[in-house]
Design brief:
Largest sheet: 6 strands, antiparallel, barrel
Radius of gyration: 27 Å
Number of strands: 26
Strand content: 35-45%
Structural class: alpha+beta
Strand order of the largest sheet: 1-2-3-6-5-4
Distance between the termini: 86 Å
Length: 472
C-alpha cells in the first residue's frame, strides 16, 4: 500500500491558509479595551445596609440565624424555639446588599436599579478612585426598576448616553459592574432580542442579551461598541440563581425619562386610559374583520376612566397610539404610560370592522403619587401594595355581592403579591370586615395589626376564595 506524500510547498500553503483564516476571523471580533478604559471611571459600586427587627419567638432560623440542623428538624419540625436574647424581646439584624450604578452628571447624580436600594437605611457609592460617598435617594420607580441617587461631589466622570431605540438584534454590547462584589468586571455578548415583555413589567420594553450578568451587576450600564450607555442591567432568567444565558436591560431612553421625572418631582406620573385589555387571537381578529393579528382588545372599562368618558367601548381594538402601532396587547401600557397625564392622545381603533380614530385626554395612573382626586380610583394602598377601583353595578349583580373593590395593580414586592393577589381580583372583605369602597379599604388596612395573618376574602374568575396575608 502506497503512502500519499504531500510536497513541502503544499504543507506550507496549508499552514499559511490556516493562519490567515484565523487572523481574519480574529480581526472581525470587537475589541473592548478602549471602551473599558474610557468608561470604567464612570461606573460605581453601590452597597446598602438595612437594620431590621427580628422577634425572638419560635422560628426556623434558630441557631444564630442559621437553619436548624436536620437532627433537630426531625424532632421539632420547622418550629424550633429560640432562646430570648439578653438584650430584650427583639434583636436587630443588619442586612447588606451589593449592586452597581453609573454617573449621569458631573454634579453627582447616579443611576441604578430600584431593587438595589429598596428599603435601605444607608447607601454607599464607591467610585473608581476608591472614594466612598454616602448617597441620598432622590427617588425610585418600582414599575421600571429605576432609582436616582445623589452624592455630594463635583467633576465626576460622566458616561455618554446612547439611543436605545437604535439598537438592533445581533449588535455587540458590553456590561461593566460588580458581580458578586468584584469591582469593574467586564462581560460582553450580543443583543438577542429587543422590546421583550416580562411578567409584571408592563412599562419596560426590555433589551435581551447573552451578556453574563450575575448578582451585583444590577444597576450597572450596558454599552454599545461606541462606548455609549444603551441600557441598565436589571434582571436575569435563571433556575440556579446565577447566569444561564439570558439577561435583560432597561433601555436607557426609558430610564432617563424616569430619571428626569424623579429629579424634578421625586416621583413618576403616568398616563392612564382606564381599560382592561386582552390579547387579540387569530380567531378574534377574523371575527372583528381585521386582516392582521395586532392590537389590544378592550374587555372592560372603568366607567369613570378617560376611555369611557371619551367614547371608547368594550370590543374596540386599539391598533395605534399617536400613530405608533400597537403590535400586541402588552405594547399598549408602554405607549400610554409614557404620555403625560392631561395630554391628548389619538387612538386608532377597529370598531365593527371599520377603522376609526378617537382623541381623548389621558388621566393619571391610580398608583402614581400625583394620584386621582376621584375616590373611585384610589391611590396606591401603601401597606397592602395594591391599586383598586370600586366594582361596577353589573359585576356586583353578577357575583351577588353588596360592595367590593377590584384590584387594578399589585406591587410585585408587596405583601399583597406575597399573599397571591392578582390583577382582576375583587376584594369583598378583609379581617372579616366588608369592603365597600377604596376609601374603606384604606381605613381598614391602616387599623390592622402588624405581623399577624389576616384573612382576606375575594372573588377570582367568578369563584369565592380566601387568602391570608401578613402586614409588615
Amino acid at each position: 500500500m502506497k503512502r500519499l506524500v504531500f510536497p513541502s510547498a503544499l504543507w506550507l500553503c496549508f499552514i499559511i491558509f490556516l493562519f490567515v483564516g484565523q487572523n481574519a476571523h480574529a480581526q472581525n471580533l470587537p475589541d473592548f479595551t478602549k471602551l473599558v478604559e474610557d468608561a470604567a471611571p464612570g461606573v460605581v459600586n453601590i452597597s446598602t445596609s438595612r437594620t431590621i427587627q427580628r422577634s425572638s419567638g419560635p422560628s426556623i432560623q434558630g441557631f444564630g440565624g442559621q437553619d436548624i440542623p436536620e437532627i433537630f428538624r426531625h424532632f421539632f419540625g420547622d418550629s424550633f424555639p429560640t432562646p430570648p436574647p439578653s438584650r430584650g424581646p427583639n434583636r436587630s439584624e443588619e442586612r447588606q446588599s451589593l449592586g452597581s450604578g453609573f454617573v449621569i452628571s458631573a454634579d453627582g447624580y447616579v443611576l441604578t436599579n430600584a431593587h438595589v436600594v429598596q428599603d435601605a437605611d444607608e447607601i454607599l457609592v464607591r467610585l473608581n478612585d476608591r472614594r466612598e460617598l454616602t448617597a441620598e435617594l432622590v427617588g425610585s420607580d418600582t414599575q421600571t426598576d429605576v432609582a436616582l441617587l445623589k452624592v455630594d461631589a463635583n467633576n465626576l466622570p460622566v458616561l455618554d448616553l446612547g439611543d436605545s431605540d437604535e439598537l438592533k438584534v445581533g449588535e455587540w454590547v458590553a456590561a461593566i459592574g460588580s458581580p458578586f462584589g468584584f469591582d469593574h468586571s467586564v462581560s460582553a455578548g450580543i443583543v438577542s432580542a429587543i422590546n421583550r415583555t416580562l411578567p409584571r413589567d408592563v412599562y419596560v420594553p426590555f433589551i435581551q442579551t447573552d451578556v453574563a450578568i450575575n448578582p451585583g451587576n444590577s444597576g450597572g450600564p450596558l454599552f454599545n461598541l461606541e462606548g455609549e450607555v444603551v441600557g441598565i442591567n436589571s434582571q436575569i432568567l435563571t433556575r440556579s440563581g446565577g447566569f444561564m444565558g439570558l439577561s435583560f436591560a432597561i433601555p436607557i431612553n426609558v430610564a432617563m425619562d424616569v430619571a428626569d421625572q424623579l429629579r424634578e418631582d421625586g416621583h413618576v406620573d403616568r398616563g392612564w386610559l382606564g381599560v382592561m385589555i386582552q390579547p387579540v387571537s387569530r380567531d378574534l381578529a377574523e371575527s372583528f374583520g381585521m386582516e392582521e393579528v395586532i392590537g389590544a382588545l378592550i374587555a372592560d372599562l372603568d366607567p369613570d376612566g378617560p376611555a369611557a368618558q371619551g367614547g371608547l367601548q368594550a370590543g374596540d381594538v386599539i391598533i395605534a397610539v399617536n400613530g405608533e402601532e400597537v403590535d400586541r396587547s402588552s405594547t399598549l401600557p408602554r405607549l400610554i404610560g409614557r404620555v403625560a397625564p392631561g395630554s391628548d392622545v389619538d387612538l386608532t381603533l377597529m370598531r365593527d370592522g371599520e377603522e376609526v380614530t378617537e382623541t381623548l385626554e389621558l388621566g393619571s395612573w391610580p398608583d402614581s403619587e400625583a394620584g386621582h382626586s376621584d375616590s373611585s380610583s384610589s391611590n396606591n394602598q401603601v401597606r397592602l401594595g395594591v391599586a383598586v377601583v370600586e366594582v361596577d353595578e353589573a359585576t356586583r349583580e353578577r357575583l351577588n355581592i353588596g360592595g367590593g373593590v377590584e384590584v387594578r395593580q399589585v406591587d410585585p414586592d408587596s405583601v399583597a403579591s406575597q399573599a397571591g393577589l392578582r390583577v382582576g381580583d375583587i376584594l369583598v372583605s378583609i379581617d372579616h370586615r366588608s369592603v365597600a369602597s377604596a376609601d374603606e379599604l384604606l381605613r381598614i388596612v391602616e387599623e390592622l395589626p402588624d405581623d399577624r395573618a389576616i384573612p382576606l376574602r375575594l372573588y377570582r374568575d367568578g369563584r369565592s376564595l380566601f387568602v391570608a396575608l401578613r402586614l409588615e
